[in-house]
Amino acid sequence: MISSRPHPYPGRFITFEGIDGAGKSTHIDYVTTLLETKNRKVIVTREPGGTGLGEKLRELLLHENMHPETEALLMFAARKEHLEQVIEPAIKRGDWVISDRFTDASFAYQGGGRGLERDKLRQLEHWVHPHLQPDMTFLFDVSPEIAQARLKDARSPDKFEREKAVFFNRVRTEYLHRAGEFPDRFRIIDSSLSIKSIRDILKELIGNLG
Ligand SMILES: Nc1ncnc2c1ncn2[C@@H]1O[C@H](COP(=O)(O)OP(=O)(O)OP(=O)(O)O)[C@@H](O)[C@H]1O
Ligand SMILES: Cc1cn([C@H]2C[C@H](O)[C@@H](COP(=O)(O)O)O2)c(=O)[nH]c1=O
Fold first, then answer.
1. CB 3.0–4.6 Å: which of 76, 107, 200, 207 could bond 124 by disulfide?
2. CATH number for the segment(s) 12-208
3. Per-domain residue ranges for the chain?
């Protein structure tokens, strides 16, 4: 059972989620600047990654084929390091942590995309962070067709980005399912809107976070 309080610390933990190319990175920069103008100390990080070991695991995860359960276990292994070394120390100090992806991505990609049972992922979630959840999760929701058109020519695709639209439709559906399970935490952003419209929405939502 996951605790109803997100965590006991004075800082804030905000996560950005969505299918590849949904626009997370574009808006992380904007939200960081917004928070810094309010004199918040902001730590921007990402998953998989965020630590020395996590970045090594990211290389394997994004480029090597492996069994879906191996993929899930390595995602959570990287997450444990990330929590211990970066996320928890920062929010204990009172800083604001913005992470480009967290556990919802494992439910969406390894669960929805690869077909792993939710129950197995819940067990890993409970093992790795039983008493910590993000304060707020922005889900950038957009069709795989729009996202893939945006990513086209941006960079050479990794293992996930080479997946077909049918995979990303399953990932998107699982993200929306997760948002339905945790409506207090999730804010769903229509990522087909213009960058300017999304910024206006984010400004209002961040303002409400205190
Ligand atoms: N609302 C938007 N309208 C039009 N283009 C956008 C919008 N948001 C982002 N883009 C463009 O789409 C591309 C992908 O955006 P971005 O890198 O932010 O996505 P991402 O979700 O972080 O992707 P990934 O998960 O693969 O890292 C970029 O070229 C960005 O400028
Ligand atoms: C945390 C996490 C990530 N993934 C996937 C999702 C993306 O395709 C890549 C990360 O690339 P990005 O450009 O930094 O978004 O990893 C995953 O499958 N499961 C996870 O738990």
1. 76
2. 3.40.50.300
3. 12-208
